[in-house]
Amino acid sequence: MIVFPAVDILGGRCVQLIQGKRETATGYGDPLLCAESWINQGAEALHIVNLDGAFGSSTLNAEKITDLIIQTGVETQLGGGIRSLHDARSWLDCGVDRVIISTFAVHDPDCLTTLSDEYGSDRIMAGVDAKAGEMVTHGWEKPAGDFLEWANLFIQKGAGSLLYTNVSVEGLCNGIDPIPVRTLLRKVSVPVVVAGGITSPSDISILKETDAAGVVLGSALYSGRISLREALEAAG
After folding, report:
1. Where would a tag sit more exposed on the chain, N or C end, judged by fewer CB atoms within 10 A?
2. Which among 229, 230, 228, 188 is positioned nearest to 212, based on CA atoms?
């Protein structure tokens, strides 16, 4: 199972949010330095989020993120503010291994087919952001229906993997809720990376037992609740 340290970027800084709310941002400095720190500690992959894009300014941080991708050279997946085919193509062309498409995929599921045909399904990850079993979009503000139905539709349309985020526990550092993860993994056949609430090695061990393909570590990692070494050991 792959461990993805999160490098969330807002206003050019690496930050962590609570429940996706901008006003809760805690800053951790230069994104490239944060990324290099995780790599030096053993990370072989990064989860990058352009938070300015998620809040409506998709071009902000583009130069900084492109430089980060080139400088680190590790596996990268990127989301945040991808609202068009142009946005997705731009990131894929700059070298990111996978783009994560959430709200755009809900509005236009056929975008997954187009991008999968052009770049290969392994580079197209659909974001399944769920709260109490319901897909949520637009910064986790708008409900959109059953998350399992959306997950299956995304796969049918060409997504080669899914990022499942449990919005109910995201950023709170109170642990995971494994039930929806198990439910999702029983229903789909593509790799699923899990985010939201992962706080301890036992959380990671539980997710490994579900056959999750990877985990994203954010607030718990940056706050020191879990070390990258502990996470990597639990992930095997």
Report:
1. C
2. 188
Q: Residue 41 sits in which domain range?
A: 2-235
Residue type, 163: L
The Cα 8–Cα 12 span in angstroms is 10
129 catalytically annotated? yes
For the chain, which ranges sit under pLDDT 70?
53-60
pLDDT at residue 127, rounded to an integer:
96
Tokens read off for 134: 């319901």
Q: Which pLDDT does position 173 carry in this prediction?
A: 77
Residue length of the chain = 236
The alpha helices in the chain, defined as continuous H runs, are 31-40, 51-54, 62-72, 85-94, 103-107, 110-119, 147-157, 178-187, 201-209, 219-222, 228-235
Annotated active-site residue in 8, 52, 87, 203: 8
What pTM value is reported for the model?
0.93
Domain count, the chain: 1
CATH number of the CATH domain containing 30: 3.20.20.70
Query: In the annotation, is 30 catalytic?
Result: no
